[in-house]
Specification:
This protein is of the alpha/beta class. The chain has 13 helices and 18 strands. The structure holds iron/sulfur cluster.
């Protein structure tokens, strides 16, 4: 049949995992003949991929959808909106009545069927049985998130993700490696491996599965698969228990794998961790981070502190601040506890009042900034490679922006380059001449 000449506007909220899901839907729809719209003006349909990790993220998803509905229903044009992702997964049955502005809701586990949903809304009948074709993922830019698993089995008492995304399931090594090769062949220069819990990748694979069996082996296999191209490989969202000797060795000894890790500890106190349904103790975490810094030269560590978990005492909060300071995390995300519907922590007694929560959150953010700004400034005077990410318009004209190996894309700051001409994806050698907050100024050497 003729290709449908319809355009779709994609809006992604939330984390990198959602970006991967949007890429997948975009690829399926592009393979089915849909174009990508630049904005609502030239869109025939809007897909909004939502986040529901926290109550605030759910609110933002709904507000964005309602603002969009106002925009696309103005005047004579009326553009259908499809809401995908975590909000429909979490609140599915309640949504049609609550959000009549939305034409269709698609849960995360239904997203492979996006083409038939969109076809139905724009009035295309392909006359073919529904099937999900193998599609090449379409990615713009030099960085691609590579999802290695989905779901989570940990059931931390504050977190709704296992209810939204389902139980943990590893993606097969063969499909991860094939996608890694495709992405790199398409110009990607950094692969960021993600999942809700990357450290346990492989544990649920069948006994007779061929190839890599754990994250360490997977990292080596991805590096081998993309050689001889020059590619950076980074791992995010690793729970502390996932850091094994074998993984430390793989990070240290595989040149493509960056000495950078994101381990969201949430807290350091054993009592709080137990209430969170997490394991470990301050001493064990300290030993882990000390070992990483000793055994992997230049190791950069990102973490997360969930502030004001129910029952967190002043002393426990202070202990966590002292712990952050002692470890000297390069980057720390700070979240205030939010009682999420359906989670055990939302029903716990000893909820901390909002004023106290705000005060503790501010204190933690101040410390995180102090540590992060100092870690950034420590790179001034160094030379390192920087991947060019794009051009930003500034008051002084266009400015080239990139990120260094110690900066995870989209979250750790950027490098502002003094060169005027370079292509997205170029890897430049840069000397850092100055820093401000999490940002660095880089003089291009070559
Ligand atoms: S490890 Fe805990 S916080 Fe992370 S997704 Fe799983 S349940 Fe949520």
């Amino acid at each position: 049949m003729d290709q449908p000449a319809r355009s779709i506007l994609y809006i992604t909220l939330g984390c990198a995992k959602n970006e991967v899901d949007t890429d997948r839907m975009r690829s399926l729809l592009t393979a089915a003949g849909y174009a990508e719209a630049e904005g609502t003006d030239d869109a025939d349909l809007v897909i909004i991929n939502t986040c529901s990790f926290l109550a605030s993220a759910t609110s933002e998803s709904i507000e964005t959808t309602l603002e969009l509905a106002d925009e696309v229903h103005e005047g004579v044009r009326s553009v259908p909106i499809v809401m995908c992702g975590c909000v429909p997964s979490r609140y599915g049955a309640d949504l049609p009545a609550e959000l009549p502005e939305v034409a269709a809701f698609v849960r995360t586990d239904e997203e492979d069927g996006i083409v038939s949903v969109v076809d139905g809304l724009v009035g295309i009948d392909r006359g073919l049985p529904a099937h999900v074709p193998e599609v090449k993922r379409i990615v713009e830019g030099a960085v691609a998130y590579l999802k290695i698993s989905d779901g989570c089995d940990r059931f931390c008492s504050f977190c709704a993700i296992p209810y939204i995304r389902g139980r943990y399931h590893s993606r097969s090594a063969a499909s991860i490696l094939a996608e890694a090769r495709e992405l790199v062949a398409g110009g990607v220069r950094e692969l960021v491996l993600i999942g809700q819990d990357t450290g346990i990748w492989g544990q649920d694979l069948p006994e007779d599965a061929q190839g890599p069996r754990n994250l360490a082996q997977l990292l080596i296999a991805v590096a081998e698969a993309v050689r001889p191209e020059r590619v950076w490989i980074r791992v995010l969202y690793l729970q502390p228990e996932g850091m094994t000797d074998e993984l430390i060795g793989a990070i240290r000894d595989t040149p493509e794998v960056l000495p950078y890790i994101d381990i969201p500890v949430q807290h350091c106190c054993e009592r709080v961790l137990a209430e969170m349904n997490r394991s470990g103790s301050e001493a064990e975490l300290e030993e882990l981070f000390g070992r990483l810094r000793r055994e992997i030269p230049g190791m950069v560590i990102r973490t997360t502190y969930l502030v004001a978990f129910p029952g967190e005492t002043d002393e426990e909060h202070d202990r966590m601040l002292r712990f952050m300071d002692r470890i000297g995390f390069d980057y720390t995300s700070v979240f205030a506890f939010s009682p999420e519907d359906g989670t055990r922590a939302a029903r716990m007694a000893c909820q901390i009042d909002e004023e106290e929560k705000l005060a503790r959150t501010q204190e933690a953010m101040d410390l995180a900034e102090q540590l992060g700004f100092a870690a950034t400034a420590a790179h001034v005077g160094e030379r390192a490679e920087v991947i060019v990410d794009g051009i930003e318009e500034t008051d002084e004209g266009p400015e080239l922006i990139g990120h260094a190996w110690f900066q995870a894309p989209d979250c750790d700051g950027a490098v502002h380059l003094d060169a005027r001409e370079a292509a997205v994806g170029d890897i430049l050698t840069v000397e850092f001449t100055d820093s401000f907050c999490y940002e660095l100024v880089g003089h291009v050497i070559e």
